[in-house]
Amino acid sequence: MSEDNVGGRALAEALLEESQEVAVLSRDVEPFALLVNSYADSIVPAELRHADLPTITEALTCIEQSLPAVDVVALVGADDDERMRAAGDFLLARWPEAELVIVSAARPLAAVTA
Asked: What SUPFAM superfamilies does the annotation carry (predicted)?
Protein backbone atom coordinates (compact mmCIF):
# COMPACT_ATOMS: atom_id res chain seq x y z
CA MET A 1 0.00 0.00 0.00
CA SER A 2 1.41 3.39 -0.97
CA GLU A 3 2.09 6.16 1.56
CA ASP A 4 -0.74 8.10 -0.05
CA ASN A 5 -3.22 5.31 0.61
CA VAL A 6 -2.00 4.76 4.19
CA GLY A 7 -2.50 8.46 4.94
CA GLY A 8 -5.77 8.60 3.03
CA ARG A 9 -7.18 5.54 4.79
CA ALA A 10 -6.20 6.88 8.23
CA LEU A 11 -7.77 10.24 7.44
CA ALA A 12 -10.96 8.68 6.06
CA GLU A 13 -11.31 6.46 9.13
CA ALA A 14 -10.88 9.42 11.48
CA LEU A 15 -13.51 11.40 9.57
CA LEU A 16 -15.91 8.46 9.55
CA GLU A 17 -15.51 8.08 13.30
CA GLU A 18 -16.73 11.70 13.53
CA SER A 19 -19.87 10.71 11.55
CA GLN A 20 -18.75 12.53 8.40
CA GLU A 21 -19.94 11.51 4.92
CA VAL A 22 -16.73 10.93 2.93
CA ALA A 23 -16.07 10.64 -0.80
CA VAL A 24 -12.58 9.28 -1.47
CA LEU A 25 -11.10 9.61 -4.94
CA SER A 26 -7.96 7.58 -5.58
CA ARG A 27 -6.18 5.66 -8.32
CA ASP A 28 -6.38 2.61 -6.03
CA VAL A 29 -9.60 2.23 -4.05
CA GLU A 30 -8.85 -1.27 -2.71
CA PRO A 31 -7.36 -0.01 0.61
CA PHE A 32 -10.69 1.65 1.37
CA ALA A 33 -12.78 -1.54 0.97
CA LEU A 34 -12.65 -2.45 4.66
CA LEU A 35 -13.89 1.03 5.54
CA VAL A 36 -16.89 0.43 3.28
CA ASN A 37 -17.53 -2.83 5.15
CA SER A 38 -17.34 -1.04 8.52
CA TYR A 39 -19.02 2.28 7.71
CA ALA A 40 -21.38 1.22 4.90
CA ASP A 41 -23.27 4.23 3.57
CA SER A 42 -20.94 6.89 4.98
CA ILE A 43 -18.03 6.40 2.56
CA VAL A 44 -17.75 6.04 -1.20
CA PRO A 45 -14.36 5.27 -2.69
CA ALA A 46 -14.34 6.21 -6.38
CA GLU A 47 -11.51 5.38 -8.75
CA LEU A 48 -9.90 8.44 -10.32
CA ARG A 49 -7.06 7.34 -12.59
CA HIS A 50 -7.00 10.58 -14.61
CA ALA A 51 -8.13 14.08 -13.69
CA ASP A 52 -10.04 14.63 -16.95
CA LEU A 53 -13.69 15.63 -17.32
CA PRO A 54 -15.13 12.21 -18.32
CA THR A 55 -13.38 10.43 -15.44
CA ILE A 56 -14.35 13.09 -12.90
CA THR A 57 -17.95 13.04 -14.13
CA GLU A 58 -18.02 9.26 -13.75
CA ALA A 59 -16.69 9.57 -10.18
CA LEU A 60 -19.29 12.25 -9.41
CA THR A 61 -22.08 9.98 -10.65
CA CYS A 62 -20.78 7.10 -8.54
CA ILE A 63 -20.70 9.29 -5.43
CA GLU A 64 -24.15 10.80 -6.06
CA GLN A 65 -25.68 7.33 -6.39
CA SER A 66 -24.29 6.28 -3.02
CA LEU A 67 -24.25 9.34 -0.75
CA PRO A 68 -27.14 11.77 -0.26
CA ALA A 69 -24.71 14.39 1.07
CA VAL A 70 -20.93 14.78 1.22
CA ASP A 71 -19.05 16.41 4.08
CA VAL A 72 -15.50 15.72 2.85
CA VAL A 73 -14.04 15.07 -0.60
CA ALA A 74 -10.62 13.41 -0.20
CA LEU A 75 -8.29 13.25 -3.20
CA VAL A 76 -5.70 10.56 -2.46
CA GLY A 77 -2.47 10.29 -4.41
CA ALA A 78 -2.58 13.67 -6.09
CA ASP A 79 0.49 13.63 -8.34
CA ASP A 80 -0.59 16.55 -10.53
CA ASP A 81 -1.77 19.08 -7.97
CA GLU A 82 -3.19 21.57 -10.48
CA ARG A 83 -5.32 18.98 -12.29
CA MET A 84 -6.35 17.25 -9.06
CA ARG A 85 -7.28 20.60 -7.52
CA ALA A 86 -9.41 21.28 -10.61
CA ALA A 87 -11.07 17.89 -10.07
CA GLY A 88 -11.71 18.82 -6.44
CA ASP A 89 -13.18 22.18 -7.46
CA PHE A 90 -15.47 20.41 -9.93
CA LEU A 91 -16.75 18.12 -7.16
CA LEU A 92 -17.10 20.97 -4.68
CA ALA A 93 -19.39 22.73 -7.14
CA ARG A 94 -21.80 19.84 -6.49
CA TRP A 95 -21.28 19.91 -2.70
CA PRO A 96 -20.33 23.53 -1.86
CA GLU A 97 -20.45 22.93 1.90
CA ALA A 98 -17.95 20.05 1.71
CA GLU A 99 -14.31 20.30 2.67
CA LEU A 100 -11.63 19.32 0.14
CA VAL A 101 -8.67 17.35 1.49
CA ILE A 102 -5.70 16.40 -0.66
CA VAL A 103 -3.55 13.50 0.55
CA SER A 104 -0.23 12.84 -1.19
CA ALA A 105 3.18 11.59 -0.15
CA ALA A 106 4.64 14.99 -1.09
CA ARG A 107 2.11 16.85 1.06
CA PRO A 108 0.80 14.37 3.68
CA LEU A 109 -2.40 16.18 4.68
CA ALA A 110 -3.18 19.44 2.95
CA ALA A 111 -6.70 20.53 3.81
CA VAL A 112 -8.39 23.17 1.73
CA THR A 113 -11.82 24.43 2.74
CA ALA A 114 -14.28 25.59 0.17
From this structure: NAD(P)-binding Rossmann-fold domains
